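pasting for the record
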Amino acid sequence: MSCVYLFAIRETIPVRTDVGVTGDCLKECDHLRERCLAVSVEPLRSSGQRCFSLDRSSEADSSLLHPSADLVHFEKICLRGSLNHFHN
């Protein structure tokens, strides 16, 4: 079972194909920076996929994700720390 976040403005992310769109969607979301805090990948009736950028995430406002059998949901996270911990 996957999840969906219902409280965001959705904008279509254009991709080159309609199958296997997750990687392209996540890259485009990264380019959109703070205008894309999450991505929703949804099936098309024609057996393809489309994706949407979401302007909010469940963490941003502490809302719950809702179960969905058909959607895939990704959210950005922010990791804080010193770069010194990663370099030996």
